[in-house]
Automatic annotation (TrEMBL):
<feature type="binding site">
    <location>
        <begin position="133"/>
        <end position="137"/>
    </location>
    <ligand>
        <name>substrate</name>
    </ligand>
</feature>
<dbReference type="GO" id="GO:0005737">
    <property type="term" value="C:cytoplasm"/>
</dbReference>
<feature type="binding site">
    <location>
        <position position="110"/>
    </location>
    <ligand>
        <name>Fe cation</name>
    </ligand>
</feature>
<feature type="binding site">
    <location>
        <position position="279"/>
    </location>
    <ligand>
        <name>substrate</name>
    </ligand>
</feature>
<dbReference type="InterPro" id="IPR043129">
    <property type="entry name" value="ATPase_NBD"/>
</dbReference>
<dbReference type="GO" id="GO:0061711">
    <property type="term" value="F:tRNA N(6)-L-threonylcarbamoyladenine synthase activity"/>
</dbReference>
<keyword id="KW-0479">Metal-binding</keyword>
<comment type="function">
    <text>Required for the formation of a threonylcarbamoyl group on adenosine at position 37 (t(6)A37) in tRNAs that read codons beginning with adenine. Is involved in the transfer of the threonylcarbamoyl moiety of threonylcarbamoyl-AMP (TC-AMP) to the N6 group of A37, together with TsaE and TsaB. TsaD likely plays a direct catalytic role in this reaction.</text>
</comment>
<keyword id="KW-0012">Acyltransferase</keyword>
<dbReference type="GO" id="GO:0002949">
    <property type="term" value="P:tRNA threonylcarbamoyladenosine modification"/>
</dbReference>
<dbReference type="GO" id="GO:0005506">
    <property type="term" value="F:iron ion binding"/>
</dbReference>
<dbReference type="InterPro" id="IPR017861">
    <property type="entry name" value="KAE1/TsaD"/>
</dbReference>
<keyword id="KW-0963">Cytoplasm</keyword>
<feature type="domain" description="Gcp-like">
    <location>
        <begin position="23"/>
        <end position="313"/>
    </location>
</feature>
<feature type="binding site">
    <location>
        <position position="180"/>
    </location>
    <ligand>
        <name>substrate</name>
    </ligand>
</feature>
<feature type="binding site">
    <location>
        <position position="167"/>
    </location>
    <ligand>
        <name>substrate</name>
    </ligand>
</feature>
<dbReference type="InterPro" id="IPR000905">
    <property type="entry name" value="Gcp-like_dom"/>
</dbReference>
Length: 345
């Protein structure tokens, strides 16, 4: 099927077009520059930017794909989770399109879409697979039985998300927002063993209750204390070393727990998705440690890891292919949609 997907859960207005698992267009307009001076995404600003970008982004996607809107077989849209006002813009646009074109509408889960997008690059998903989903708002380990109908959470962060930790530590180091890519770049010239930062929820006691959960707020505080102590002593802060050591601590925990979960579940395929999956150290470390255990790793290219419309179209396409009934035309946007709700009714 030819599916158009719309994504507006945060600050990216994404419109993707796929045919089956073939990506035809992935147009993204980001309002990230408008949020940079606030150090985080401002919901009202994001919603307004989605309104302004929606029609031009749809037009750009159709042009790239070389299709007309009436060629589309179905419309898919992120119905949650995300910022309520931002989601509403995408959902309203998708409803208008679906109704005016007389095409079925599929309201889909943003997290499931971060998993489904890998199909556009590496072909059909191995199912079951273990998914490590790491972004600005989420850090979860998921057992994916069927990406269109059955995803079970094994664990999640109990405080900050991994991307949030990257963004906060970047801010401490005076790097621009969003900080993930800047930490990644700085870390390349620093030493990952310069500073021994804490690995959250890895002590024997914590593992009893939180084997597959994450915690990054203690790490963020440890970095803040270390930087403050340096500044008090009047010595320069070695930004590259702090970035590399911090990044190592985050990746170490993410990879360790993901591989532990895969082993515990008897799953041989690990999929990593979400914005933080763009991190070069995370990709290399996962690859290296998984191969020692005979576990295969799939990570989409960085441009498909961060929020985009192609991921929504990819999940929509799989849902259509499996014959699930479409959502109703009055489907709601749900800012706290759980990952177990993959398709809105
Ligand atoms: P959600 O959590 O709802 O999926 P999001 O806005 O966080 O939404 P994403 O685009 O998936 O959306 O992820 C953005 C996050 O990914 C930011 O926190 C950003 O710093 C982080 N990120 C992007 N590139 C890198 C990188 N190379 N290394 C580390 N983190 C990165
Ligand atoms: Mg974003
Ligand atoms: Fe996301």
């Amino acid at each position: 099927p030819l599916v158009l997907g719309i994504e507006t859960s945060c600050d990216e207005t994404g419109v993707g077009i796929v045919r089956g698992h073939t990506l035809l267009a992935d147009a993204v307009a980001s309002s990230v520059d408008q949020h940079a001076r606030f150090g985080g995404v401002v919901p009202e600003v994001a919603s307004r930017a989605h309104l302004e970008a929606m029609v031009p982004t749809i037009e750009r996607a159709c042009e790239t794909a070389g299709i007309a809107l009436h060629d589309v077989d179905a419309i898919a849209v992120t119905s949650g989770p995300g910022l309520a006002g931002a989601l509403l813009v995408g959902v309203a646009a998708a409803k208008s399109l679906a109704l005016s074109l007389g095409k079925p509408l599929y309201g889909v889960n943003h997290l499931a879409a971060h998993v489904a997008v890998d199909q556009l690059e590496h072909g059909p998903l191995p199912e079951p697979c273990l998914a490590l989903l790491v972004s600005g708002g989420h850090s979860s380990l998921l057992r994916v039985e069927d990406v269109t109908s059955s995803i079970n959470p094994l664990g999640a962060t109990i405080d900050d998300a991994a991307g949030e930790a990257f963004d906060k530590v970047a801010r401490l180091l005076g790097l621009p927002f969003p900080g993930g890519p800047h930490i990644d770049r700085q870390a390349a010239s620093g030493s990952s063993i310069a500073i021994d930062f804490p690995r959250g929820l890895t002590s024997r006691k914590d593992l009893e209750r939180h084997r597959f959960d994450f915690s990054f707020s203690g790490l963020k505080t440890a970095v803040a204390r270390w930087v403050e102590a340096r500044e008090r002593s009047g010595e320069p802060v070695p930004v590259a070393d702090v970035a590399a050591s911090f990044q190592e601590a985050v990746c170490d925990v993410l990879v360790r727990k993901a591989l532990d979960a895969a082993s515990a579940e008897g799953i041989e395929d690990l999929l990593i998705g979400g914005g933080v999956a763009a991190n070069s150290r995370l990709r290399a470390m996962a690859e290296e440690r998984a191969s020692q255990l005979g576990i295969r790793v799939r990570v989409p290219r960085p441009g498909l890891c961060t929020d985009n419309g192609a991921m929504v179209a990819a999940l929509g396409s799989s849902i259509v292919a499996r014959g699930h009934a479409p959502s109703s035309y009055d489907l709601p946007a749900d800012s706290s949609l759980p990952v177990t709700s993959i398709l809105a009714v």
